Amino acid sequence: MALMPIFALMQFTSQIVEQAVEALSSFPGIGKRTALRLVMYLMNRPEIEVTHLADALIKLKTELHLCKRCGTVSDQEYCDICRDPRRDETLICVVEDFSDLMAIEATAQFKGTYHVLGGLISPMEGIGPSDLNIEAILQRVKEEGPKEVILALSATVEGDTTLYYVAKKLNEFDVVVSNIARGISVGGELEYVDEITLGRSLLQRTQYTIN
Predict the structure, then answer these.
(1) SS3 18
(2) Residue-range domains of the chain with CATH
(3) Which residues sit opposite 93 in a β-bridge?
(4) Percent of the chain with pLDDT over 90
């Protein structure tokens, strides 16, 4: 019979502390020991700091919405990137989600605009093209007439499936469709790729053709 973890047997002296530990340990990668250390840290911080943190977390759910143009998270109708006049609007970089957008921004190699799909096609998980922000990118290309659409998707089965589907749809328009160079290992996700590798992959992108 397996022994119950020692932490599971621990009796808290406060229900408030226990609830805080339970809440933080629900985060990915945070176990109860780490959660307890975080709670102890917060207990020793000034009240104004903890209040500021709580307010920031609440605003994530109450004040964020999706940019009407590109689909990334924004606290305004249009995100800061879409409203930036310095951006090259002839280039659109298609990404899976907000974390991939931020990973590309961290490279400082891309000065165009973005389009967030909100996921990847995955029949195993019941996610089809209609569940993603694909029709919106087709509408953008039709209305805005960009010169190039870069498909910056993860080198996974789902990423390749989505890349092929979107590229095939974009073939109906007079626009260059390219994908990032595969300096990224097969099975790798963009948000975990280092900035140098990802930046080079963008600069060395190649035109994508449907066979």
Answers:
(1) helix
(2) 13-62 (1.10.8.420), 86-207 (3.40.1360.10)
(3) 114, 150
(4) 70
